[in-house]
TrEMBL record, chain A:
Subcellular location: Cytoplasm
Protein's name according to its UniProt entry: tRNA uridine 5-carboxymethylaminomethyl modification enzyme MnmG
Species whose genome carries this gene: Halanaerobacter jeridensis
Function: NAD-binding protein involved in the addition of a carboxymethylaminomethyl (cmnm) group at the wobble position (U34) of certain tRNAs, forming tRNA-cmnm(5)s(2)U34.
Gene: mnmG
Family statement: Belongs to the MnmG family.
Automatic annotation (TrEMBL), chain B:
Source species, domain of life: Bacteria
Identification of the protein by name: tRNA modification GTPase MnmE
Residue positions binding GTP: 231-236, 250-256, 275-278
GO MF terms held by the record: GTP binding; GTPase activity; identical protein binding; metal ion binding
Residues annotated for K(+) binding in this entry: N231, T250, I252, T255
Organism expressing this protein natively: Halanaerobacter jeridensis
Biological process per Gene Ontology, one example term: tRNA wobble uridine modification
Segments forming domain TrmE-type G: 221-380
Binding site residues for Mg(2+): S235, T256
Family membership noted in the UniProt record: Belongs to the TRAFAC class TrmE-Era-EngA-EngB-Septin-like GTPase superfamily. TrmE GTPase family.
EC number: 3.6.-.-
Function: Exhibits a very high intrinsic GTPase hydrolysis rate. Involved in the addition of a carboxymethylaminomethyl (cmnm) group at the wobble position (U34) of certain tRNAs, forming tRNA-cmnm(5)s(2)U34.
High-level lineage: Bacteria, Bacillati, Bacillota, Clostridia, Halanaerobiales
Family matches, as Gene3D superfamilies: P-loop containing nucleotide triphosphate hydrolases (3.40.50.300), Probable tRNA modification gtpase trme, domain 1 (3.30.1360.120), tRNA modification GTPase MnmE domain 2 (1.20.120.430)
Amino acid sequence: MKEYDVVVIGAGHAGCEAALASARMGCSTLLLTLNVDHVALMPCNPSIGGPAKGHIVREIDALGGQMGRNIDKSYVNIMMLNTSKGPAVHALRAQADKPTYQSEMIRTLEAEENLDLKQDVVTELLVENQEVTGVKTITGMSYQAPKVVLTTGTSLNGKVIIGDVKYTGGRQGEFAATHLADSLKDAGIELDKFQTATPPRIDQQTVDFSGMRIHPGSEEKLQFSFFQDRAEREQKPCWVTHTNERTKEVIESNIEDSPLSTGIVEGEGPRYCPSIDRKIMRFPEKTSHQVFVEPEGMDTNELYLNGLTTSMPEELQVKIIQSVPGLEEAEIMRPGYAVQYDAIPTYQLNSTMENKRVKGLYTAGQINATSGYEEAAAQGLMAGINAVLSLRDQDPLILKRSDAYIGVLIDDLVNENPKEPYRMLTSRAEYRLLLRQDNADLRLSEIGYDLGLLSDEEYQQVRKKDTAITDTMQYLDNNRITPTKEVRATLKDLNSGGLKKPVSLATILARPELDYQDLNLLVDDLPEVKPEIAEQIEIETKYRGYIEKQMRQVEKFKKMEKKKLPEDIDYSELETLRTEAREKLDKIRPVSLGQASRIPGVSPADISALMIYLETYKQDADDEEEE
Amino acid sequence: MYSNDTIAAIATAVGESGIGIIRISGPEAIAITNQVFEPKQDKDLNEVESYTAHYGHIVEEEQVVDEVITLVMKEPKTYTKEDVVEINCHGGTVVLRKILDLILNQGARLAEPGEFTKRAFLNGRIDLAQAEAVADLIQSKTEASMEVALDQLEGGLSDQVNDIRQDLIALLAHLEATIDFPEDEIEDFQSEELGARIDTVQQKIDDLLATSERGKILKEGVEAAIVGRPNVGKSSLLNALVREKRAIVTDIPGTTRDVIEEVINIDGIPVKIIDTAGIRNAENQIEKIGVEKSEEYLTKAELILLVVDISDGITDEDKRLMRDAQNKEVVVIANKLDLEHQLELEKIKEILPEAAIVKTAAIANQGINELEDAIANLVYSGKINAQEETMVSSLRHKKALERAKENVSDVKSTWEQGLPNDFLTIDLRAALEAVNEITGDAVGEDIIDQIFADFCLGK
């Protein structure tokens, strides 16, 4: 029986990151997939990034993950969203050339020294004394490993649904992992049902774009990765059209065929990707909904109808699509469908992504009740890293809510047990002004480097950037300009206000209408810096007050995180807690008072009761020490 | 961790009414009562249903102590979420004490002040705001402040604060929706609308904070100084108000040499009345100190009860006092109504046009009710009504609201500077957190739930 340090089941976005992290950290790693042709597949929308998701991609990159580098090699359209809404929420988003995204990822996996990629169906998780020992496959092969990362996506007990047709499959045209679900249950793992859905794809030769609004990509060169400067790619536009009264009529008169009425799909679907049936029934006053028509790749005719998600019978899908301006003649290439699948209630999860019931088992991606390629990749990366750290008896990597969106994501999962597939939103990150997509490298690359996931060269690049920022900030604080006639004239030319007394350059730069390069007109010896450094300096000077405010909030948050809860608390004995709180705390077993306060169902009164308990616990411990 | 024992205490104010209640809470509450209670019909309290009343006697060594009705309430649907028994008895202080002793002898512990509420709080029965209101209730001395406390307990404050909370959440949800779903067709706030919405929240917080002053008046009472030149009848007036002879009343001017304080209850408002020495140019040393004190109170007190002698007419000294009191809430008391009239009320109105004027004959208890009404009217200003208005009477709530106020004004200034919307959310969130400290809510999913409830989002 072949032995590995880490076995990763599933080669989607979570599995690829987990396997690469493990292999790059020096562990012999096996990556098992149902279908090697489907590695890093994007089975739903063709885009990567967007608000919060783009932040996550950059954080993955700063930690030494692959997603950002891979999309930089494969996008067909890239743009920065939210540019008018403040630097913290600028959001980079790319449309991928799906086949290239996959082939680039496969190439990377194949090139990785410690990594074996195999096609097989895992049927059994091998467990001894509630600890993982390996996996067994449908062909009878067994692989031994002390750590297993499970990233089943929608495959675990997956069922594909179109209209009243329901068949076993992880995605359209693919196997489901059915035996594995039973094996997990045998190991004591609870499973819940979730669902999601995807819109129909149509043939671009049957579309009339003339009445649609065009969304070209950015003219400015953009990329996700901080590290590998990539050549600009040829871009393809996206298009926007709208549904109308007719669309509404078609859906309303056939609503009995919608899964909303038939109840054929089990489990909760996501609120942020509602089907068109759901949108029309829930907001009947809205007669027009946007439809984004997006390319699935550079060399394919397939178009993705973003906004028309439905799993109605295919003949109705045709009617719905053809009611939309520009799509009157559209031919479906692949119908939309819903998929239901098993996921684990996340109270079974530790912040390390390890399962609380089966030691050595890590889960990441949709199996953890999340949705999104980016969310999956982030979890995969963290699961892979922590599997290796645990194998080496090293401290786990747990990112705090004040460190990264990834920290927010995992903390939410562990505490909240989502009832619908969880999606990252910027509004979930309470310290988002500090967690910007432009400073992910400054925040996280030291960790990536220490883990061995970033090279010396890559890390030095960030160190240099950091030093340049500090030095330039110092220069701006220490150098002043005086209100000479010349200076005042220059400021006037720059549409900036007057100047009465000498001020530091930092104070001048704080003016909203001025940027770093403008300072060149005021002083002769302004340090020359790269645009990304100028950007950091501008943000730091212009929004200093707000940044400091957030830093104070972080201090407060950290105080509560430091109040540790002893591991051996028997919550069922704590009668001062309400029953609901007792149950939740016992299930989740938070490590700190701060974490406990974020568990829904634990009230402030419960937190007070826990504080009182902690005080007496400390006293008891002190007393014992004295004895 | 407090021990989960059984506690007992007299739950009604001592000596105020004919019926007294002893409350017992904890796991042994029913068993303990069973030891001292002899029901009229043969039954065992351990076996009766929750929320039932039982008639019988409290007995000590087969001697009846009192005739009582015992209420049995079983956990968890009780005030403390523990088993609770209430013994309703007739007795005055002596009998109540006696019964309490019997209960304590059976193993209950005497409850600390507020301990029932503490248990209710710790057991998650009431939130922090409610618990604090109960603490006020325990300490409040008169019915009007009790009503404020009760109002707060029933969620009056929570309602008002929740209203502010909902405004903040709705604002945040809209801003966040446009940030998290930039390509969805959500209308961005028009700048003026946004500014107006911020102002509305600001106003609501201000209004609620304004009640905190009145909250203070009701809880701590109003300080009223009786002033007037010597021998106009200040002490008789105080006596009439207090209805017992505490201040010495003589015909010799300057008898009241020190300051006398009495707290009286006027229509539920605790009023601390300070009787001062007569104000005039005193030569006597002791009296001089008293006079200085009087002048001090004239500036310090919230309410001035200015006494003039109706039989003397207005003297220069009276006029000086009136002018000193011009910026105060004043009731002019035209005393000695029983003697021959000299006083022209118009002369008072010239100096104190707003002041209420009440004619009294303190020595004969005449006009005292009218005086009490005038005081109550002033304090309530004809507007304050504890039953309708929510008052912020806890310092912690006030502090939290003040923080929210500051945060919202920071939001306003960010808006005025025209910074991007994201910067508005920082202080809006901080304001929401401050408000949550009062209601005990966590920020969490609320905003996200609101986003999806309000907008058709997602592609």
